[in-house]
Predict the structure.
Amino acid sequence: MFLSRKVCLIITISILTLLQACSQQSNKADGSAPHKYSLYIRLKNNAEYIVQCDSLTGGTIDPEKQGTPLDIHQVSRDIIVKDNFYYHMGFKNDQFIKYKVSGKVFQKVDSVAMPHFSIENFRWMGKDTLQIIGLQAPSFTQVVYSLINTDSMKVISTGKLDIPHPGNGFNNMSVGFAEPLDSNLVIGYTYHKPVGTTSYTTSDTMYTSLVSITSGLLNTDKDTRSTYPAGVNNVQSYTFYDEHGDFYFMTCPGIALGNRPDVPTGVFRIKKGELAPDKKYFFNLSASVINNHAYGLWYLSKGKAIVRSERKDLYHDLNDHYSAAHFEFYVLDLAEQTATKINLPLDKGTRRECVIVEGDKAYISINSDKQGDFIWIYDIKTGETKKGLQLTGHTDYILRMDRL
């Protein structure tokens, strides 16, 4: 039986469309143009994969078939992604390593020695200039910095920052942000101490210091409205600048970071040109809006942001905080200090880099036990949501997604 030319053409177009929907997101191994997005996936057997794709709006990806496997003894989700390269601090060898995806191989490109450096946060200062702020291991009491040229993988400068060491029972610390102001850095941090042999807690005070690399500590502000500013941003985002140049950050006193659940999660503002949080502004999320703690903050535009909030009635303790589906997403109005729940399935995974904002759309990855692992599309103008790209096979978590 012979088919007409028209029927053959229709069948051919249908097949091509199906193939594109199902596999256009697979890693390119032919040296063609780079992809647009990177997804970091964990399977049900704990194997991890990088998947690169061109669209988040639809189709399916099976990471085992279309992704690049990772050696979990060498790299983890606390990676820095930019311009099709991945950066990660080696677990054992004190090397800051640059990788790229080459077909089915996560290939080491170069590295630079960074002895005893534990990364707390990073910031791109230019196309190939990366600022890393961290703590000196193994004591975690001295704040250190490094400025790296990521093209040549050479250290431009490195040293210690004049931030007071922990004391009075506190034996380590966290640095949540380090933002440039003229020739200085505005740094947010707090201190921790052990509770028993297996847990810790956090000071009720967060500190914001102005530090000169050459002259040392210039000024320090103390604030007790909340604690643990801005988390660890190579795991999850907690800060942003708005259109006016004001800097916003969220505090993280919940059990998965600060372990001070008696203290509220809040959003703070440092106004453009100022050195410390605005004493007139405090968006208390826990008390008046979501009635829980939150992890993760992403800016939309025009004074609106997305926050990812836990549901304390749906998990028992830290042992199931990661595996229980209990996270919800809200849109915050930063001026009115109100929140609107987004219509999405309950999400699991304590801390994830899970939101990408592009124009009038926010792409939100959801790990749902009931509806599957999808990138959901949130329409910022209408508030409507719909499913986009699906991760299939044995996918258990979409741990992070980044622009390439």
User: Anything to note?
Assistant: Confidence is low (pLDDT under 50) at residues 1-27. The radius of gyration is 22 Å.
